[in-house]
Specification:
The chain is α+β, with helices and mostly antiparallel strands. The chain has 4 helices and 5 strands, in the order E-H-E-E-H-E-E-H-H. The protein has helices at 12-18, 68-78, 118-130, 135-148, and strands at 2-5, 23-40, 43-65, 86-93, 99-106. The strands form 2 sheets. A 3-stranded antiparallel β-sheet has the order 1-3-2, covered by helices on one side. A hairpin with a 2-residue loop joins strand 2 (23-40) and strand 3. Helix 3 runs antiparallel to helix 4 (135-148). It is globular and about 40 Å long. The N and C termini lie far apart (34 Å).
């Protein structure tokens, strides 16, 4: 199963801490979404990264080949069983134009904005820098993080 990490899983160390069998396949982009932070529908003081529909907008992530059991465990950590996030099917493209079918997470029922902690956002920004994502995209992420606090 292919999974696009666009948030805290941009950082290899964070992903390997949670899913040591995952294999990074490279940087890919998806179109039509923008990063946001959303509160959980029944726990407004808690939340996570989420995708906001944004036609024509591109965002980047790290594509992973996942071990099925680890992806199932990641579902539990993400609160899929509680309805906080759900897997969605997406198409991602790398810089050579290769497209692949993948999955990622999105909130099916966001409860409004969420203010993440610095510890939560650290791997997002560190991973984006580690991967050498475009400076304008890193700036966008920094702005989203700053606005959410």
């Amino acid at each position: 199963m292919l999974y696009l990490g666009y948030c805290t899983m941009l950082e290899l160390a964070e992903m390997h801490r949670l899913c040591p069998g995952s294999k990074p396949l490279g940087v890919y982009q998806m179109e039509g979404y923008r990063l946001r932070f959303s509160a959980f529908h029944d726990a407004l003081d808690q939340g996570s990264c989420d995708l906001e529909v944004a036609p024509g907008h591109r965002m980047w992530g790290l594509l992973y080949d996942m071990v099925d059991a680890e992806y199932d465990a990641l579902d539990l950590m993400a609160g899929v069983d509680k309805g906080y996030l759900s897997r969605i099917n997406i198409t991602v493209t790398n810089d050579t134009g290769e497209s692949r079918a993948a999955t990622t997470y999105r909130s099916p029922n966001p409860g409004g904005p969420f203010s993440p902690t610095a510890a939560y956002t650290r791997p997002i920004l560190a991973g984006a820098r580690e991967l050498g994502l475009a400076a304008d995209y890193i700036g966008e992420l920094e702005g989203i993080v700053a606005a959410a606090r």
